Each structure stands twice: as C-alpha cells, then as structure tokens.
Amino acid sequence: MTRGIVSAPQPEAVEAGADALRNGGNAVDAAIACALVQTAVDPLMCGIAGFGSMHLYLAQRKKHLLLDFHGRAPALAREDMWSDVIVREAEDGFGFILEDHVNDIGYGAITTPMTLRAFDAALKRFGTMTLGELIEPAIAYAEDGFMVRPHVNYFWHLAERGGKAPHSMRLTENPEARRIYVKDDGSLHALGESVRNPDMAETYRRIARDGADAFYTGSIAGQIIADMEANGGLLTREDLAGVAAQDAAPLWGAYRGYRVATNRPPGGGVMILQMLNILEQFDLAAMGHNSPEYISAVSEAMKMATLDKDVHLGDPRFIDIPLDRLISKEHAGELAARIKRGEKTHVPRFNPGGEESKDTTHVCTADADGNCVSLTHSLGMPSGVVTPGLGFMYNGCMAVFDPRPGRTGSIQPGKSRFTAMCPTIVFKEDDPYLVIGAPGATFITMGVLQGILNVIDFGMNAQEAVQAPRFCATSDVIDITNRITRATQSQLEARGYTVRRSPLSYHFAGVHALRRCDDGWDGGADPGRDGMAMSV
After folding, report:
1. Which of 360, 376, 408, 424 is catalytic?
2. How big is the chain by its Cα radius of gyration, in Å?
3. Do residue 209 and residue 336 come from a single domain?
4. Comparing C-alpha atoms, which of 4, 391, 14, 13 is closest to residue 204?
5. Residues 199, 131 share a domain
6. Cβ-based neighbour number of residue 62 at 10 Å
7. In this structure, are 334 and 464 located in the same domain?
8. Residue 305 CB partners (closer than 8 Å, separation 6+)
9. Is residue 102 within 8 Å of 84, Cβ to Cβ?
10. Which residues contact 142 (CB under 8 A, 6 or more apart)?
11. Rounded CA gap, 195 and 217, in Å?
C-alpha cells in the first residue's frame, strides 16, 4: 500500500474509492467516492435520501469524531398515528409490522433524507476533493447501467418471514420505481443484466453543478415536496431545509488492553462496548472458536445487550439513557456472572415473528497519512418511493419506530430511531489497529462484535475475521450460518437452546474491515456481499 486501502460490498464502489486515492485524495475522499457509487449500483441498500453514521480518525488534523446523520421523523408525524393498526413486532425487535404496510412501503414510511448533506459536509470540512468531482463515477453507473450482482439479485427477490413486505414490492408498487427496475415483460432485471437509471444520472449532474443545497432548498427540493404533498407524504419543506449532520465525540471502551472507539446513540456502539465488557471476563480463546461453549457465552451477551437496547436506547435528545451504567465494567460483571451461573436471558417480543430487512451498506478506508474512515449508510428499509424525474429511492425508516405511544422508540416529530449502525475503530495504544463496520439491521452489532473477537482473541487477519462463520442471538433463538457444524448445533440444543440454521453460508451482517499489520494494512470484505478490498 502506498496511498491507501478501501473495503466495501461492491467492487464498482471499491474501484471508485481506490481511484480517489490514486488521484491524490485522502481517506475521506475515498470513502465518499465509494459511498456515492454505492448509491448508484446498490440503490435499495443506500441512497442520497438515506441516513447513516460516519466515524473519522484524521491523524493529520488531530481530529477524531463521528458525524451522525440518522433520519428524523417529519414534523407532521404523530406518536399515536399508527397505534390502532399494529400487527406484530419483528422478532429481532427492529421494527413493527402494521396493516397494509403503512409504515414500510410508500410515502408515509419516509424520514428526513440525511445522506447527501452529510457527505457534502464531510468533504467540505475534511476532504481534499469536491462533491462534484467525486460524484462523476456514480453518474456514469446511473447513466450507462450497473450489472445485477448475486447479492443484489438475492435481495431483490427476498421475502422476509413474519409479514414484512416482500422486497419485490419496493421495486414494483411505485410507478417510477417500476419504470426503472421492471422489464417490459413484468419481471425484475436478472443476474448479470444491466439496470440504467438516467433520471438519477441527471439528478446527480444537477447536484454536481449546483451543490447539495439544490437537494435541500433548491430546485430538487421543490420537486420532492411537490411529490410528497400530492401523495400524502409526511416530509415538508421545513424538514428538508433543517437537515444537518451532527458532530459527536467517540464513545470509548477497552477490551483486553485495546482501546475501542465507536458511535453514540441513536447508533449501536453502546451494544458493542457492553458485549465486549461482558466477554472480557471469559477466556474465549480457551473455549475454542465457535465451540458450543463459545457460542453459548457470546449469544447470552448478545441477548443481554439486546434487552438493554430494547429498554434504554434511542434518541438521546428525547430520552434519558443511562449510558455510564450500560457501558460500565460493573454492569458487565453482573451480567457475566449470570452467564457463568448458567442463566439464560429471555428477550420478550410483542407478538413476535419474522426477520427484519437488512438494507444497508458499509465502507472502510485508510490512507498513507494515517487517516481512517468507517462509514455505514442506508435506506433502512427502502420505501419503494421514487419521485418522477429524480431517479433515487427514499428511505423507509418510519417502520422502525414503535407505534405504541409512551415507549423509548415511540414516534415523535424530529426524533431519530435507534439503529445498530456501529462504525468502530479499535486502537492499539494510540494508533488505529482495526477499522470495522457492517450493514445488516440488528445483525450489525453482532457481526461487528464477532469480527473484533476474531482479530483480538483468535489472531485472525481482516479477511479471515470477516469470513469466519457467524451466529446471532437477538431473540430467544440462536441463528447460525450453514457452515457451523451440525454437531455444534446438537450440543447447543442439548444445553436447552432453540437453534435455527440459515441456508446461507455467509449471513448475519456483511462485515468489512481493515487491520493494521507490520507492512501497512490488510483488508477484508464479506464474501456474502460480493465486495472486495483493494490497496492503492
């Protein structure tokens, strides 16, 4: 590596990030170039009308911060507006299924679109290149077309358990989305076929020419609001004009002598620190990687963190979060003692059933000057809405708010909902050692946790760490990938666990990471997400 390294789930995006480094850009430029291409080649996973969390360690400028750009409930949203149409809560606690998918599909699902403003702010403050320069590769993919890759094809045809809208609805219900993603014979574009989006290309050209303000207060904003008003959307002109990314100091913890920096609520970094604190009190390496004893202990830590999340975590501007207690070693010691006594944590759900959509993507970058970026951005669950002539899809994040009034995650105007996004940097003494993050809804924290454990406790490199078989416990069920042995499953079941085997070999988040080694950095890209790592 002479200039830097990039890891992400899409090869096209990785190439764009690498080109930015090759052209003299820094890690921030590379991350934004990569992320913008992701919006064009993975348009249901992310977009300029999405949200996210960006972790920046800028060695040259002596800056270390998080840019929080979680979407917020529009001003017209009301706490009780869906309280009478609840069907059930998702099994992993990440969202609710309502009658007619009113919170999930369509104009009512949209929260404030934050992503473009955050990208623009990051570049103006910390980059060396402009938004207009870095959006050019994304324009080309939108104009000329991107190839449908295996994970894109899988995701477009996925039907979630438990009543969530099938993903094909997000491509077919809205006439403009249908025009882009559905062929003349009524079928979706298939594996290896090319999808063109000239309207997105033209919108991106307008942004390149007029800047991000065109989207939030200018001509594009006018088209957005006209569409919302014509179709009963909650988003207003004032919501758009008020969008701004927020600075936050990293949330710090420690694990086996390493310093761990992650994001604050409404992101999921609290869960990472809490689980590491619990697991630090076990000799995981002696248990053996993915042994029944190891999976049992880690799964109990996952369930405990999930339970605390369900009760306590949300938007700190609206609720009081006992942050110091949640990430304290004392609290972790009490929870670890319960695991050692053989207790099993129960995670209650409101009429449980079904998985949650995993519509997110991630970027890790590092450059030769010591700058690092871990960026997670998403549409949450894409709303399926495309404004005529604009080409991009809006987020569908209202689905994750709790439609029951008076709860931690209840709907309130201007409020962000909890997400498991946890872009994390692990430090060895004062230097970044591991840059890691993932897409995957509530699976994100569980995947990132296992990536960290794989590196620190088991000495894996970045690629080994992200491709090792994973498991997940966000309810009373332990979900395992198909590469965890059946003998291990049988032993877990003998311990009294309900174990559910996925048909997928790579699942439970799509972890991407960079690890500092003796001669620079090595990179890892989750094989289940079609991506790669590339040094420049």
Report:
1. 360
2. 21
3. no
4. 391
5. yes
6. 6
7. yes
8. 271, 274, 275, 278, 445
9. no
10. 40, 196, 197, 198, 200, 201, 204, 391
11. 30
Q: Tell me the Ramachandran region of residue 62: left when phi exceeds 0, alpha when psi lies from -120 to 50, beta otherwise.
A: left
Of 403, 420, 293, nearest in space to 357 by CA: 420
25: pLDDT strictly greater than 80? yes
Active site residue 236: no
492 found inside a domain: yes
pLDDT at 351: 47
Q: Is 362 a member of any domain?
A: no
3-state secondary structure 29-42: HHHHHHHHHHHHHC
Per-residue pLDDT at 358: 52
Residue 201's φ and ψ, nearest 5 degrees, are -55, -45
Residue that has been written with the tokens 């995947």 in this structure: 447
Residues 505 and 486 in one domain: yes
Distance of CA 117 to the CA centre of its chain: 18
Map tokens 């174990």 to a residue: 499
Q: How far apart are alpha carbons 424 and 469 in whole angstroms? A: 21
CATH code of residue 311? 1.10.246.130
Q: Please compute, for residue 325, the number of CA atoms within 13 A of its CA located in the half-sphere on the CB side.
A: 9
Q: Which of 159, 109, 87, 101 is nearest to 349 (CA)?
A: 87
Residue 158: pLDDT band (50, 70, 90) is: confident
Helices (H), 3-58: 11-22, 27-41
89: which 2 tokens? 């809560």
pTM for this one? Answer: 0.95
Contact call for residues 307 and 93 (beta carbons, < 8 A): no
Please name the residues in contact with 187: beta carbons below 8 A apart, sequence gap of 6 or more: none
For residue 280, give its domain range. 248-347+421-530
Residue with tokens 């939108």: 142
> How many folded domains does the chain comprise?
2
| Burial of residue 249, with CB atoms counted within 10 A of its CB: 0-12 exposed, 13-18 middle, 19 or more buried | exposed
Percent of the chain at pLDDT exceeding 90: 90
- 227 and 109, same domain (yes or no): yes
